[in-house]
Design goal:
alpha+beta, 6 helices
Length: about 190
Amino acid sequence: MEKYGKFTEDCIPDGVFPIGDDVFVFASTYYDSVSVHIRRFKKYGKTYYPNPEGITLDPRWIEYIMHKKKVPESLEELPSGLFPPERHIQITNENFIDFTFKRIKYSPDKEPTFKEITISREQWAEMIKKYGAIENAAIDNMFQCMDFLTAYKTFCEGPIENTLPSSLDVSLGQQYLTQILKQIYFVAS
């Protein structure tokens, strides 16, 4: 996205996924930390501008939310409660037509602040359809801020010499690291 997060309807950036009603899902990097955003944009003419309505999630939370690969139709199917404890996320609904994603943060004086966005069943279904691409965008963002050798050493068990792929083909190493990163960031704890 351009500076300040704006873009035009004719040129939606790679890694920005429309899910309907001017709501987009995209990954970003901030201080070497990857986040996934569900955000509503305001459209003026052909240009979209981000507005405050939206939430920021850890990539693992998106996997947790999307893991059933279907839009919830009952309380039992709704991702449960507040998770994880350090940054609370709550998903609620009134009628299983609309879902409110609410992020609860606590200030140093323990007062809660809230960010939220409400999406429809159709938008949830669209997120499920685009989940693979969203996952890849988050991984691409992570690659941009990662020292691959350090990552490889960190994520492999045992001496690094025993786990290196036999091929010197860089793409195989990148593919292997991608698999490891998917396990780390997209497997629910």
